[in-house]
Design goal:
Helix content is 43%, strand content 20%. It contains four helices and five strands, in the order αβαβββαβα. It has a five-stranded mixed beta sheet, with helices on both faces. It is globular and about 35 Å long. It starts with 6 loop residues before the first helix and ends in a 5-residue tail after the last helix.
Length: 123
């Protein structure tokens, strides 16, 4: 499966790195579950998009597979969020078991669908 986003596009996304932010988004944010991923969204004070990724050992015991899932989520986020997501939000993409096997296009569709359901689509 070919990744469409370049490394530069992936790096250009603002990143959520602090655990406190992840916990706050999990507690207070909106969440939508699709086949390939779970999307959480929460307004931020930065007027731009920030994104974080979560892949737990519960999803897959193998670190190799978890890293691959995370790379796929990063690429999908870089392809979809700048074009479709409302700015001023923090987004957390959480991998599911299906994240590994779902086609890249389906993964991107899942992300767009979740954005629509959460009302976080760029106007």
């Amino acid at each position: 499966p070919k990744m469409k986003a370049s490394k530069e596009e992936i790096r250009a996304l603002g990143r959520i790195t602090k655990r406190d932010d992840f916990v706050k988004i999990n507690k207070e944010g909106k969440k939508w579950v699709s086949q390939g991923l779970v999307l959480q969204a929460f307004p931020n004070a930065y007027q731009k998009i920030r994104v974080g990724f979560t892949v737990t050992k519960k999803t897959d015991a193998s670190a190799v597979n978890r890293n691959r899932m995370k790379r796929r989520l990063r690429a999908a986020a870089a392809d979809v969020l700048p074009a479709h997501a409302a700015s001023g939000y923090d987004y957390v993409l959480i991998a599911r078991a299906a994240t590994a096997d779902r086609s890249y296009d389906e993964l991107c569709q899942d992300l767009k669908w979740c954005l629509g359901k959460l009302g976080c689509v760029k106007s």
